[in-house]
Amino acid sequence: MTRLDPARLPVQVASVVEETVDLFKAQVPPGVSVTLRIDAPDAVVLGDPNLDLRGALIDNLTQRTRRRMGLS
Fold first, then answer.
1. What is the per-residue pLDDT across 47-68, written as a single tens digit (0 to 9) for each?
2. Among the four residues 19, 22, 24, 59, which has the most C-beta atoms within 10 Å?
3. Quick one: angle between helices 13-25 and 54-68, nearest 10?
4. Exposed e or buried b for every residue in 37-51, given b needs 16+ CB within 10 A?
5. Under 8 Å CB-to-CB from 65, ≥6 apart: which residues?
């Protein structure tokens, strides 16, 4: 039997990614379409469920998108 660290619990990746992409879509310019494809909808990772990674993910997505669009 494996004992889990109380700070690291199973976190469903798809739900975090979906929420993050929804927030990200609100920041993209009009005319830009964002499509999400999740190939592993049941994927789970061990993490701190109280740690809000959405902000860091949105910053990363925004920076990468701006670079690809030549906006930064």
1. 876 777 777 777 888 888 888 8
2. 24
3. 50
4. eeeeeeeeeeeeeee
5. 28, 32
